[in-house]
Write a structure and sequence with these properties.
- Helices cover 35% and strands 17% of the residues.
- By secondary structure, the chain is an alpha/beta fold.
- The strands form two sheets. A six-stranded antiparallel sheet has the order 1-6-2-3-4-5.
- Strand 4 and strand 5 form a beta hairpin.
């Protein structure tokens, strides 16, 4: 059942052949329609269908459409998202680069996603292991055992619970009956919730009236943080570099951190005023769209001059086996991460990347690759000792900048 109903388009053999090599990963399922030189009609149809569904009271967390450019191997996702935070709701776009089998990479090596000589192909995406919301959903009520189906929403969950009802024993009281039926309905509803958690990622991605698409805040303890700044400049983002010490010293000076942590988000303009006084008057309070938080650096863990005083229960670090200096340094890092979280909650941050050194579950062999945790939230070790890591980071910056460009394109078309 298509999530955005409309006229059925039959793909040509040309479209099917172009998509076929990329189906192995399980992300792209099939081509829909023939290649087109412009995305405009496909997006226009999608926006019209979304508007129709909204008028009918649609409650899906996300309504996506996927467009593939086989020439550059870019898969573009245009979607309407719903969130309690209005800045996180609305039309958003994301672009990923596919490998030879169709597995997504969260980086882009091309500059212009609109360039094509082969045309764009509307493709379908179903249940997949990569966190992409499906563009269609199958009801599967006509299979051999519909009660084993995972319902797509609460209404169909209640329907399946009705289909599964059995005869009521004469010995069953009304209270027992109501409790049993409520338990059966809840079991189906839990299937819906679990499927939605798998299909629809959370989001830190926001977009507001004052979102500046050109500013990039880098919080880093690296001696070579300028390499990240150079990557930022390469893709056209102006880097504002702030050290971890700048962040800590800022809080010591304003005396807010321990006394009133709820004001953390308000301190970004003050931090930029302190560290970039020549630029601050151009920025405004909500001007940073992209963030890199790269504050884990083992070589500094034994530097006692960098200890900070933070109220963190000692039990939280019981697994540190009494390594006191590392304990203090980890607390310092978490303080800076807390600062970044507060900025994101109170400012329209479009995308951020965090060094995952504090995440032990993040595999050492994968630290060069960018991993996506949620919409607008990524993990990677940006520099390290490998130039490949830095190239991945640069491609990620290019990707999130294109994400914003495509979001503006989508919202602009929606106004026409």
């Amino acid at each position: 059942m298509p999530d955005t109903p409309g006229k059925e388009l039959v793909p040509t053999s040309e479209a099917e052949a172009a998509v076929e090599p990329y189906r192995a990963s399980g992300l792209i399922e099939a081509a829909i329609g023939s290649p087109e030189r412009s995305m405009d009609r496909m997006i226009g149809d999608h926006l019209a269908n979304v508007a129709m569904l909204e008028a009918r009271g649609d409650k899906s967390p996300e309504r996506p459409v996927y467009i593939f450019n086989p020439e550059s191997r870019l898969l573009i996702n245009y979607a309407l998202r719903r969130d309690e935070d209005l800045a996180k709701s609305g039309l958003f776009a994301e672009v990923v680069e596919l490998d030879e089998s169709g597995k997504p990479r969260y980086g882009v090596s091309v500059v212009n996603p609109f360039a094509t000589s082969t045309g764009f192909i509307n493709v379908s995406v179903g249940d997949n292991p990569y966190g992409f919301a499906p563009s269609y959903t199958e009801m599967k009520l006509d299979n051999d055992d519909p009660l084993q189906t995972v319902p797509p929403n609460i209404e169909t969950a209640d329907l399946l619970a009705m289909l599964g009802q059995s005869a009521i024993p004469e010995s069953e009281t009304v209270m027992d009956f109501v409790a049993r039926r409520s338990e059966e309905r809840e079991a189906f509803r839990n299937k819906v919730r679990q499927q939605q958690q798998r299909h629809y990622l959370g989001t830190v991605q926001s977009f507001g009236e004052f979102t500046n698409p050109d500013m990039h805040l880098i919080i880093s303890d690296r001696d070579d943080a300028e390499l990240m700044a150079a990557s930022s400049r390469e893709v056209g983002l102006y880097p504002l570099v702030v050290s971890g010490d700048d962040v800590i010293n800022h809080y010591r000076n304003v005396k807010r951190f321990l006394d009133a942590p709820e004001h953390l988000g308000e301190s970004i303009p003050e931090l930029l005023r302190r560290t970039h006084p020549d630029l601050f008057h151009w920025l405004g309070s909500n001007a940073v769209s992209f963030m890199t938080v790269d504050i884990a650096d083992e070589k500094r863990w034994n530097d006692e001059r960098r200890q900070i005083t933070v109220s963190v229960p000692a039990s939280r670090w019981s697994e540190a086996e009494g390594v006191h200096i590392k304990q203090v340094e980890l607390e310092r890092s978490l303080t800076i991460l807390r600062f970044a979280e507060a900025i994101i909650e109170r400012s329209p941050i479009f995308a951020r990347l965090v060094n995952p050194m504090l995440h032990p579950e993040y595999n050492d062999s994968e630290r060069g690759k960018v991993e996506k945790e949620a919409h607008g939230q990524y993990m990677q070790v940006p520099v390290g000792k490998s130039p490949d890591n830095l190239r991945e980071y640069t491609d990620w910056l290019r990707k999130v900048r294109l994400d914003m460009a495509l979001t503006l394109y989508l919202r602009g078309l929606n106004q026409l």
